[in-house]
Batch of 2 targets.
Target 1
Amino acid sequence: MVHQKINLDRLSPEEALITPTYASRALTSAVPKYEIPEGEMPPAVAYNLIRDELALDGNSRLNLATFVTTWMEPEAKQLMAETFDKNMIDKDEYPQTAEIELRCVNMIARLWNAPESEAATGCSTIGSSEAAMLGGMALKWQWRKRRQKEGKPTDKPNLVMGINVQVCWEKFCRYWEVEPRFVPMEGNRFHLNATEAIKLIDENTIGVIAIMGSTFDGSYEPVQEINDALEKLNRETGWQVPLHVDGASGGFIAPFLDPDLVWDFRLKWVKSINASGHKYGLVYPGVGWIIWRDRQELPEELIFHCNYLGGDLPNFALNFSRPGNQVVAQYYNFLRLGKEGYRQIHQACRDTALYLSGEIPKMGPFELITDGSTIPVFAWKLKETISDQ
Ligand SMILES: *Cc1c(COP(=O)(O)O)cnc(C)c1O
């Protein structure tokens, strides 16, 4: 959220001050809300004051309208509390945290079937949005290099995707000056398909985004079909239009529940994939992941070699300092749950989604759009006949 400075002259004392109703010897005067108080207060008083105000928030355990993890085991919480203080960027001071990030990258690359013959490369991020920025940049830089080599103009890059993309892709396009080309929804199709994607591609297309688990209705986009259409198009035109899979949700669902669905690095044109560790990776916010199928897909110019914290730290990120604890928590889940644990949890979520999507249409006025058999998310609508009345 973008916040604005509040004009204190316009506020009544009640609006400008916190005046807790409980009496505490330590809290004999009101506390300003919008200015740093002049004096100190004891830790327990500050703790209680803030905790009580936060009681006004929703209860995250009851928040069913989120994709983000709202519960972790006490051991995970403890591990996270113990590793808040480690700066993820400082690989020299915290080499074991860096090693754990490397292990996670390896585990995820293999989960997504990165071929052993290629050198999959990736990193943790603060979430899928940062991962999308990095993935999009790699697409843009690679496209520009190909164009420059051919002596062709590089001033009009575009990115092809469904209109149902998560806002991070619109953000990527605006921030990095790439024309977004949206495939509209049509009839009962609420996501991208190969035929429509191909129509929008030209020589200036830096890539196509396919979503595994659309935020709109939970559906998987037909990644294999799009890959095959790209294979044909690229063969006919000599272009090299790649595919990035936004697996924010599905990246941690499909490998466990739909192992036979081919959507990942088994497909030739899938050059990079992102996922949110804090969604079905089952970690508290914020951690995301991005993996490129091969080191070559990640342009060297985008990697910064920083040495002021010690040795050479190759880094590709939008931010710098970040707590190491979410990555540690991701590793905890991988070890603690294993593939079987993830499968069981996600299957239970899918069973719940399927049960609900089986009951809701029986109520009468509703009709399903999707049923939760992809990511455990489904959408329904009022039947036409009723909404027409
Ligand atoms: C949630 C989501 C994102 C953004 O992910 P964050 O981890 O919240 O930054 C991007 N794409 C899709 C498909 C998503 O579901």
Target 2
Amino acid sequence: MVQRWRDVARASGLASPDGSARPTIFAEMTALAQRTGAANLGQGFPDSDGPAWVRDIAAAAIRNGVNQYPPGRGTPELRHAIAAHQLRHYGIELDPEREVLVTAGATEAIAAAVLALAGPGDEVVTLEPFYDSHAAAIAMAGATHVTVPLTPDPDGFRLDTAALDTAVSPRTSIIIVNTPHNPTGTVLSSRELQLIAAAAQRANALIITDEVYEHLTFDGVAHTPIATLPGMAARTLTVSSAGKTFSLTGWKIGWITGPAELIEAVTAIKQFLTYSGGAPFQPAIARALIDGDADIAALRDSLSTRRDLLAAGLRNAGFDLIMPAGTYFVCADARPFLSDGDDGAAFARALPERVGVAAVPVSAFCREASTASQALAPWVRFTFVKDERTLRTAVERLRGLERTRGAVQR
Ligand SMILES: *Cc1c(COP(=O)(O)O)cnc(C)c1O
């Protein structure tokens, strides 16, 4: 019997290679942080809620009877707001009736799109490291996962362009892009996006692009949707969500946009995953997309300050790091603190006891024994989407981290 859950569990780190169940590294680190009272910079969700005026709209909707199934494609109001958002920010024109689908977060959008458009015998290419649900969706579809490393170099974690050319072939049905990128904080450059676009065109592959951090970029770095590149709108499904943009991750209001016939295919799957959801949240997010620019700017500024605070603290403590241009995360090289034979995973498991801080190893976002997972073995990811007090506590504690004897002094 095919028990696809085993492949899914393995792809997302929920099971060991022998198929036995285990908690994800995220659950393990959070449990450890709670047990030891560590500052939890492991799991990446905000510790303060999104704008009160947006929450008030949802609360009023609940009181005023917006509590039954919304339309399967999402309320017309929200679909129009999503289309208007894409036009205003990126010049992307969408028909809200046929080219926009509201989903239960970006996670459902990605799963439904991969299930709709790939199957056994197809290859789906992602960057590596990758967000865990991308790998799980590919496994659920029974497709084959092929990866292209993002490699640490002085310019940041950059796309391995030679690997891209090898990875994308006529067997490729989908390339999943993620920019701004979790876990590295990379915002793909226009050259990198052009290379991915060219590879997709050569292979006649579709693109699914996960842009949930589209508004959370720093230092004036701009996010470019790959759908805006010449010729790419016709083969691209763009995914985003209100969770990260408005610090409302528990609402799970996401969306997917693109050509009508592809949205039709995704809708066919989505209607039997959740059908619809989040009725009272949809009018609130519709307003937030129209009137929430000041809130987005405030979040971006505050995240940028918190990024600087954490990055400076990590550098002071002796870490080498790559400054992220976007997202909630900074990745640091833990080599000065590793004992012989240890890697980032061992370091992350020991860190709560060692100094009272929790982080996650970057290898948790990689496939076992892959080129990327070897190159990134000593790296750990810290989140800065926590209040400044928690960050200051973490930074103070990290100063007490002792270098391993024999570790290279930088
Ligand atoms: C958080 C996150 C998601 C999940 O988005 P939801 O809207 O909560 O489903 C998807 N992709 C990336 C890269 C994320 O970091």
